Amino acid sequence: MKKINVLIAGASGYIGLQITKILANHKNVNIKYLCGSSSIGKTISFFDKSLKKKILPKIIKFNKHLLEDVDTIFTALPNGESQKISKLLLKKNLLIDLSADFRLRKAKDFQKWYKIKHLAKHMIKKSIYALPEIKKNLIKKNRIISCPGCYPTSILIPLIPLINNNLINNKNIIIDSKSGYSGAGREVHKKYKNKNLYASLSAYGLAFHRHNSEIQQELDLNTGKKNQFQFTPHLSPMFRGILSTIYLDLKKDVNIKKINKCLKIYYKNQPFVKITNSEKFLSTNDVINTNNCIISVCKSKYKDKIILLSAIDNLIKGGGGQAVQNMNISYGFNEREGLSG
Known about the structure:
By secondary structure, the chain is an alpha/beta fold. It has helices at residues 14-23, 81-86, 107-114, 132-139, 150-164, 188-191, 211-223, 256-266, 316-331; strands at residues 4-9, 29-35, 59-60, 72-75, 94-97, 127-129, 144-146, 173-180, 202-203, 229-236, 242-249, 273-275, 293-299, 305-312. It starts with a strand and ends in a 10-residue tail after the last helix.
């Protein structure tokens, strides 16, 4: 099978590096260009020594002429930048974006939550919010693949089947998520310089974290219901990983066995979603360096309530791994190619 040529924009960031590391070992991919801004002229191994033995191009500045030589563009850039690139795409190009640029279906919602004007409104209809376990059959039909945020990935995967099967009260969902500080990007040390990053746990974005918008959108779109939830994210003193703890009220005559059975049936053919036996206490260590989402259904001290634990690696399943998974689906490659699960 002929290899596809790939460009990675934002290659030296945490997510860009993960994509590079995965694709460097992908049998169907040739990394043609690595692009950056502050890292121009450097080798990618400067940022990750594990890539030293790989033959990879030096980091260069992006320009539109590079699109002529590639099939797929991965963009791990600040919000707003991928919208600019989307307007330059050639017919043969597939854009796989890891920012929020095409996650929201309405440009006015993007402006409301991200405080910048959408620069490519006409391209939104050519994009898909690509949570592969939910949208697999639609991914091939779109030129722009918008990868979900890290928190939403850990939240939507367990919740959508339960709401669709009418097993839980969808008006009182409480979500408590804790993420490694890599989720805030390389500038995290500047953003949180007074937070004692390596030795404290910090709540942030209460009620108005930007990921609220895509969680609400995708829960409602994929269930056909108006859902209500509270979402509180925390920055924790670990480099990577997300653990979401979700508190749910059960519908009448529903028990923990029914919840577990529903999730296992729904995801039985999904290679990266693992439903554990009930009552397993999860750790982010269970998923680090994998593309897995592991879910555990746990009892509450109240019979009409349960607690869900959902764990992912924010840089892989919540970032570069999910992007490559979407690429594999789009091109008809083995979905597992290049990925650890």
